[in-house]
Amino acid sequence: MGDPALSRRGFLAASAAAGLGMTALSGCGGDSDSGSSGTTTIEWWNISTTQPTKDVWAALAKKFEAQNPTVKVKIVQLENDAYKSKMTALTSSGKLPDIFHTWGGGVLKQQVDAGLVEDLTDRTKDFATGLLPVAKEPYLLDDKLYGIPFDIGMIGFWYNKALFKKAGISEPPATWSGFLDAVRKLKSAGVTPIALAGKEKWTGMYYWAYLAMRTAGIDAMAKADADKDFTGPGFVQAGEHLKDLVALEPFQKGFLGAAYSTPTGQAASVGNGKAAMELMGQWAPVVQADAGKGLGDDLGFFPFPAVEGGKGTITEVFGGGGGHALRRGAPQAAVDFLKFFASETTDRELVKKTGVLPVVPAAEAALTDPNLQAVQKQLKSATGFQLYLDQAYAPAVGQEVNDSVGALIAGSKSPGQVAESITKAAKEEQ
């Protein structure tokens, strides 16, 4: 993706949040070590709840157990939002699972600052040095490695070529005004332009985040976090641009109550040909096919458009990957599992079967899907990289971004109020 130093700007972690008074959850963490039988049980929490990923990961756990007869892997799989809330509670309780999904950034930093996460710098040196540098960026804090990536990618528009053709749109829009025109054309043709899971706030956050990057510029994202001030004109303009989109009523009927991966949700709406687009990550095709039918050759990808007069460029991307971290004091078996999961053999299988982008350079040959190749190309030529805002910033700030943007989309907050609410949350984190 170019110079990793360039991407570092997007991964500035926020300061640790104050204690989160939530009910502690039992059943994970320190009670995972060897039992009287001599078997070590390691608990692995992840968010792979859709097919085929769910079964592929379960099979990988079995394969690891076969190679390591004295180890048992207990899998706990939770949907994205449920996972985030449970992990917030576990962080508060001071007891994390042996192996757990992480997006890095400010959320991981909070867990690290609380002394809950294992420093993997030395324990994974024999294999982590061979991983794609940009894929490791979200998990590097003060030059120490706290997570091992299994995926890296970006958010962009996934679209139905046949529906674009029906609406007379010859090529994907490259500017925001062109994008709004495309939405109007789709509506005129009787096509629902965009599917959105309004019930899950993170899906709407993508729009505001990208618009803020395009208007204020990528450097402003880190500066606003450092200064605890999101009220600059670029951030308010981002809300105005999003408000312009919402005013066109581009989303499917009932979108405010829609989930992401359910049979009637965002991914299924696109996968079943009922909506022309969704703004989503590199995993979108797999979830579309699991929740709906999938579009096959009719599915295309294009980067988030440039905003005329903005300080950002179309080559600056927003996204992140998935990784695994370990609780502090996790057994060696957990480190061995990370090594197994980050091997070329496993990475090739993940690329072929689950649609992730490779983090092991040698596994890149397994990437044959033209859309994922397009995502990989965008990533490699990116001139800047911004981590998901609900992970890059401290947890309370990221949550406020999601909630405020959700309120803007629902019509209950103005662009200025969004900027003020996020700023208030950021100042309270000091």
Descriptive account of the structure:
This protein is an alpha/beta fold and 430 residues long. The chain is 44% helix and 14% strand. Strands 1, 2, 3, 6, 11 and 12 form a six-stranded mixed beta sheet that branches. Strand 1 (40-46), helix 2 (53-67) and strand 2 form a beta-alpha-beta unit. The protein is globular. The model is unreliable at 1-27 (pLDDT under 50).
Outline of the structure:
This protein has helices at residues 4-8, 53-67, 80-93, 105-113, 125-128, 133-136, 161-166, 176-188, 202-216, 218-227, 233-247, 266-271, 284-291, 332-341, 344-354, 370-380, 389-392, 395-410, 415-428; strands at 40-46, 71-77, 99-102, 140-141, 144-145, 148-154, 156-160, 192-194, 275-280, 299-302, 316-326, 384-387.
Summarize the biggest pleated sheet: 6 strands, mixed
Task: Count the DSSP helices.
Answer: 19
Shape: globular
Low-confidence stretches: 1-27
Instruction: Please provide the count of β strands.
Output: 12
Strand content: 5-15%
**Rg from alpha-carbon coordinates:** 21 Å
**Overall pLDDT confidence:** 90
Q: End-to-end distance, in Å?
A: 33 Å
Helix content, binned percent: 40-55%
Instruction: Provide the structure class.
Output: alpha/beta
Described by its quaternary structure, the protein is single chain
